[in-house]
Amino acid sequence: MLLLDERIWLLFKRHWPQTLTYWSVFFSFGLCIAFLGPTILDLRCQTQSTLQQITWVFVSQQFFVLVGSSVGGLFKKTLKSSLLALFSCTLIISLVFAVIPLCHHVILLSIAMGLAGKAMGVIDTIANLQLVKLYQKDSAIFLQALHFFTGLGALVSPLVADPFLAEDSCVLGANLTTNSSSPRNLQHLRSTLAGHGAALHTTSHFHLYTDGVVVTRVSYAFWIMALINLPVPAAVLALMSHERLLPCSRSSPRLLDADSNRSPTGDTDQGHGSVFSCCNPAKLRDRPATFFIIHALGGAILFITDGIIGSYAGFVYTYAVSPPLLMGHKMAGCLDSIFWAAITVGRLASMYLSYRYTAPKLLIVSLVGVILVQCLLLIFYTSSVFLFIGTCVLGLCISSVFPSVLAFTEDILEYKGCATTVLVTSASTGEMLLQLLVGSVIHSQGSYSFLLCGTVASLIGFCLFLLLLYIQNIHRSQHTDLSQCTDMKEKPKTGDS
Question: What is the pTM for the complete model shown?
Answer without folding.
Answer: 0.81
